[in-house]
Amino acid sequence: MTPVCTVYVLPGLGFAGEAAAPIAAHLPERFDVVGIDLPGHGDAPDAADAGVAAVADAVVAAIAARATGGPWILCGHSMGGKIAAVVADRVLRGDAPLFGLAGLVLLAPSPTTREPMDEERRERMLAWVADGPISAQHAHDFVSENVAAPLDPDTETTAIAQVQRMSPLDWRRWLETGSRQDVRDGLDIADLPAVVLAGDADDDLGADAQPGLITDLLPRAEVIALSDTGHLLPYERPREVAAAIARLWARILAASAPVPSDWGRIIASERTDPETRGILSRRALADDVDAGPQALTPPQLTILRALAARLVPRAAADRFDLALRLDRDLAEGRGDGWRPPGLPTDAAAARAGLDALAAVWPDGTAAQDALIAQIIAGDGFDGSPWDADTTRRWFEDLRVDLAQAWVSHPASSARIAFDGFVTGVGMSDPGFSELRADRRDAWEPSSLGILSSTEDPS
User: Fold this and answer.
1) Contact of 201 with 148, CB cutoff 8 Å
2) What are phi and psi of 74, to 5 degrees?
3) How does the average pLDDT of the chain come out, rounded?
4) d(C-alpha 440, C-alpha 431), whole Å
5) Average pLDDT over residues 224-235
6) Which residues are the signal sequence here (predicted)?
């Protein structure tokens, strides 16, 4: 089976990309699990300098070298969790040459603020590398102190060997600088679907601490407490971690739309300017199915969803919520600047019109389509707050807003073969050279306009 989602795993301090293997063993074939060696870990060279930014630079480069343009989930453990938050922020801003980030899984993550580590313990760990690489005994101590119960002998041997390979320089850099850095200011990843797992026997970054550490950063995150579990979740609870990843992916599929991988590669490339890349990255995120309306009431949102279902033909895999997105636009005052004469603000008009429509909305799609056709024809409807012509203009404006909400999604751009957002700003050979009908430039996506209406990545 061809994988449909890549999971990039950023292990914790001391552990190499191979720490992802236990998680991969419990995930089905539709997931491609890729462990990333952080700087100074495994086979990766030391970071360019001390601090979180340099580690994030290396991670972005490592993912970009492997990225397919398809969807991916970022999974960060401990130190890797802090780095994952910074990388995610860069992707959603468009500052990284990446596209397709769909979700975030954090395993006992180090917070984006200063890590709450006991200073005596920090000094003891720093002493381990005072004379060179970590010894077998100290590596054993590190592993055993971070689990709730001893690992099986083979797993423990694997874990200890990874810690021994850790660069003394980057070990010191993390303990002295990275773990103490506060990088929270300016991070904007609140829209990202996320899950956080932590053990109840983890003293510093456990289940009791995590809600207070991530609530403001990731309000959509599901926090899962694992009993009889310490800090090394990839080795202690790989099955539970894999299950959480699979559930998160299912949630993402239920409220998003697939963007073809060749379109994802174009968006990630230098042909798409960073600001546009960031906008498209956020638009591609799954909707929060538990979120309530902000500009409308729940009944008004319900009738808007019913209207959207009749007015905007959707492919089976297009599962993002048009009505909820329009509600957000209304709440934030985003619009096209056009208001038909005789109508109040967009939000006020939507509330009044939807309330009136809800009172006369019929059962059955045939009757619903007939009512829609009646309004479009300029005949109004019983109970409308405006005359027939003003009602027609309001309904026209509403239809435009729904269409814009649909067409602005990058999956819709692929479906209608619109790649005009690709400007190539800063390139020596930007933009388009082939402008004839039914012709495309060599760099354009090969799937222009041919996305199957039945495509479903689940």
Assistant:
1) yes
2) -105, 125
3) 92
4) 12
5) 96
6) none
Query: In this structure, what are the phi and psi dihedrals at residue 388, rounded to the nearest 5 degrees?
Result: -60, -40
The DSSP letter of residue 20 is G
CA distance 405 to 413: 12
Distance CA 387, CA 245 (A): 53
Name the phi and psi angles at 287, rounded to 5.
Answer: -70, 155
Query: SS3 for 221?
Result: coil
Spatial CB neighbours of 442, under 8 Å, sequence gap ≥ 6: none
pLDDT in tens, 45-69: 999 999 999 999 999 999 999 999 9
List beta partners, residue 7. Answer: 33, 73
Residue 148's pLDDT is: 96
User: What single-letter amino acid sits at 439?
Assistant: R
- Would you say 326 and 335 are in contact if contact means Cβ atoms under 8 Å apart? no
The tokens describing 156, both together, are 């423990």
Domain limits of the chain?
5-253, 285-408
Residue 1 scores a pLDDT above 70: no
CATH fold for the domain made of 5-253? Rossmann fold (3.40.50)
Strand order in the sheet with 72-77: 31-35, 5-10, 72-77, 101-107, 194-199, 222-226
For the whole prediction, is pTM greater than 0.85?
Answer: yes
Contact yes or no for 191/102 (Cβ under 8 A): no
Residue with tokens 């003293």: 203
What Rg value do the Cα atoms of the chain yield, rounded?
Answer: 25
> Angle 119-127/168-176 helices, nearest 10 degrees?
160
What sign has the CA pseudo-torsion 289, 292, 295, 300? positive
The CA-to-CA distance between both ends of the chain, in Å, stands at 12
Here the tokens at position 13 are: 């301090």
Strands (E), 11-52: 31-35
Q: How far apart are CA 264 and CA 444, in angstroms?
A: 11
According to DSSP, residue 386 is labeled S
Say which range, 1-10, 49-58, 296-305, 366-375, has the weakest mean pLDDT.
1-10
Give, in order, the Cα–Cα distances in Å from 160 to each of 16, 21, 142, 315. 11, 15, 8, 50
Secondary element (H or E) of residue 175: helix 168-176
> pLDDT tens, 366-397?
999 999 999 999 999 999 999 999 999 999 99
Q: Could you tell me the two tokens for 151?
A: 């690992």
The helix (H) or strand (E) run that includes residue 226 is strand 222-226
Alpha helical stretches, state H, 284-321: 298-311
